[in-house]
Amino acid sequence: MEQAPQRYAVVTGANKGIGIEIINNAGIGGLVIKDNDLVPQVLFQSRELSDDVIEKAGIVQTFELAEECLQINYYGAKRTSEALLPFLQLSESPRIVNVSSSLGKLKCVSNEWAKGILGDAENLTEERVDEVLNEFLKDIKEGCLERKGWPKVLGAYIISKAAMNAYTRIVAKKYPTICINSVCPGYVKTDITANTGILTAEEGAASPVKIALLSNASSGLFYSQNEIAKAKPCSLSVNCSKFIKLRWKILHKVVTGANKGIGLEIVRQLASNGVKVVLTSRDEKRGLHALKTLKDLSGFVLFHQLDVADPASVASLADFIKSKFGKLDILVNNAGVSGVVIKDTDLLPSLILKGEELSDDEIEKARSQTYELAQDCLQINYYGAKRTSESLLSLLQLSDSPRIVNVSSFLGQLKCVLNEWAKGVFKDADNLTEEKIDMVLNEFLEDFKEGRLESKGWPKAISAYVLSKAALNAYTRILAKKFPTFCINSVCPGYVKTDMTSNTGFITVEEGAASPVRLALLPNGSPSGFFYDRSQISFY
């Protein structure tokens, strides 16, 4: 087998913090803060600070510090990029990642003239960026920052990162074959934040590393961690410090069935994004073992036993969350079982992807299913998710961004529900009720018990699983209609390599977890009541 070509990378400022974890990240703040307890306030509320607070913080912002900040954060990155561009052009997949900051977004550049220049993408040039920086330095030297409308606390840092973002767009336009982006890694515990950050250096480094390894990616963009952020300045009524405070408020989340597979990876990815996550598992021993595998994220993950089929266990979880956090922001209903016993793993992909096309002999050779397994499947996959949601709804209502993500399957789409009566009930969105879902599931179980699945037109390959996921999708629509201030969606994560698929899937758990995580972190006003096939809205 031919080996992939060796790739080479340069990381600046990499002796500590994010830089050593990434192993373009050299950077300094451009000021001195004597009181470390006030660092978060200085970073997040810089435009709202009174002169008294600034004095109490002992903030020193001199011309010399500002000059050094611009020289390192902007001109240093520019100088390094220019020196290495000839070598980058020899690469088959050249990448430049400029580690920036959310403070470098145009909404934080309070000088309107500077904002106008840096926001004019069509006419941006390096000379115009120089013009802005020279004017800033001139005004700080003459003591007229506040009068000229420049940021008064983190001026040099903000302007240096805004210049960096502008330069990213210029170079991306100039070198279309190079993938060049800037990224805010988040509020990270480093020397530059006096270790007051929320994310670890490992978590902060993840975003630049991901962008450095992107394939066929867009260029000239600004990423806020893993998400592409708006390049243009937002409305002037949006206050920068309020934006940052919103982004970094602590969210609290529950993931059911999270001791392994997709559930565990959802926990990992959310915790890496600064979300406090309650990892749950029916088996306490396995849950605690899973918790140990996330020891690097111990500040963001805790465990609580949960059997979604047991009302007392669900009530215990609700009491725990109420006493621990007082509210809940995100619920991911991931707990699930297949409802069958696999006899031949080699036949599993055919059973999942082409189940109803297989002969009875092929199906019987691949799996066995019983009434008891079907009952258990409905109790966990549908009633368990419903029971957990209902128990936690009052806590979710206390959040200003409540989210419920129901991990479903493409097998729960209506095209897989062969019984025409059941399909008609689920399809009638305007008249859907929980009682009608119960009616369908009870009819299915009765026909299963009496051996009438095939004669009544029910799915025969993975019967209970299909019905449980179709019911979950229907419940998603009912709940979204009932709670319009919530964002509630169901999602098929794809055919993932997990124990449930006997590791026959096409995608990794990391790739599979990405879709539920994305839905869990959707901004307010996002679509609700939909079924997603991975990242795309699909048909029920």
Automatic annotation (TrEMBL):
<dbReference type="InterPro" id="IPR002347">
    <property type="entry name" value="SDR_fam"/>
</dbReference>
<comment type="similarity">
    <text>Belongs to the short-chain dehydrogenases/reductases (SDR) family.</text>
</comment>
<dbReference type="GO" id="GO:0016020">
    <property type="term" value="C:membrane"/>
</dbReference>
<keyword id="KW-0521">NADP</keyword>
<keyword id="KW-0560">Oxidoreductase</keyword>
<dbReference type="InterPro" id="IPR036291">
    <property type="entry name" value="NAD(P)-bd_dom_sf"/>
</dbReference>
<dbReference type="GO" id="GO:0016491">
    <property type="term" value="F:oxidoreductase activity"/>
</dbReference>
<protein>
    <recommendedName>
        <fullName>(+)-neomenthol dehydrogenase</fullName>
    </recommendedName>
</protein>
<dbReference type="Pfam" id="PF00106">
    <property type="entry name" value="adh_short"/>
</dbReference>
